[in-house]
Amino acid sequence: MHAYALVLFLHLLGLLTAAAAAALAFFAALQLRAAATTAEIARWARLTKAVVPAFPVATLLLLGSGAYLTQVGWGWTTPWIDAGIAGLALIVACGSGIEASRGRALEQEVRTAGMTARARALQRDPLAWSAKVTTLTLTLGVVFLMVIKPATLGSTLTLIVALVAGPLAAVPFWRSHDRVEQPVAERPLAASAPAPRTEG
Ligand code: HEM
Fold this sequence. Notes:
Blueprint: H1 3-34, H2 38-51, H3 54-73, H4 79-113, H5 117-123, H6 126-148, H7 152-174, H8 178-181, H9 189-192
Helix pairs in contact: 1-2, 1-3, 2-4, 4-5, 4-6, 4-7, 6-7
This protein binds protoporphyrin IX containing FE.
The site of protoporphyrin IX containing FE (HEM) has 22 residues, from helix 1, helix 3, helix 4 and helix 6.
């Protein structure tokens, strides 16, 4: 068996690991966004924390195997490879930088003060959601780069499109959603109680 093909398999294993973890993390993020109680926040934050360790493993797998493939078959000045490395760095910055720090802020707020207005704002934080969706558009962009292998202009444009598309696609997730804002348990009882009888 050719070593190059085996390493390419490991490279794709890294991509599959990242994709599976990203799907679970996105599901957890949607549940966190809709959570109405501190218990729900804690529950979905636990799923996020369980999934997060898969990301550095996937990153190292992609980077290590990618470095071998580059060294053996392509060279380090190949435009789509350099753009791929930049894309991976941006994914890490968005995910474990911006998004993770906003997630920690939400958890901290809920733990110390409960479901405050700030906590509800953090559930729909524009920066966190833009960073999250941008990790997905960048991943798609890097897959495009690796498969199509464009020249410098095409590689640069691919990254730019991914960086613009991410925050745009995130808008529906950070827009206000009144139905979610008012926790059911905190609704005034009078709102759901039947009207008093006035006969007699
Ligand atoms: C988010 C990160 C990455 C993703 C999603 C990704 C995805 C892929 C995919 C899907 C392929 C298969 C392409 C094909 O067979 O046509 C591939 C191949 C390859 N990748 Fe990556 N990759 C990533 C990061 C990297 C990095 C950081 C490097 C370099 C350090 C790299 C170097 C390569 C090389 C050299 C190939 C072999 C291309 C070939 O032989 O046709 N990749 N990658």
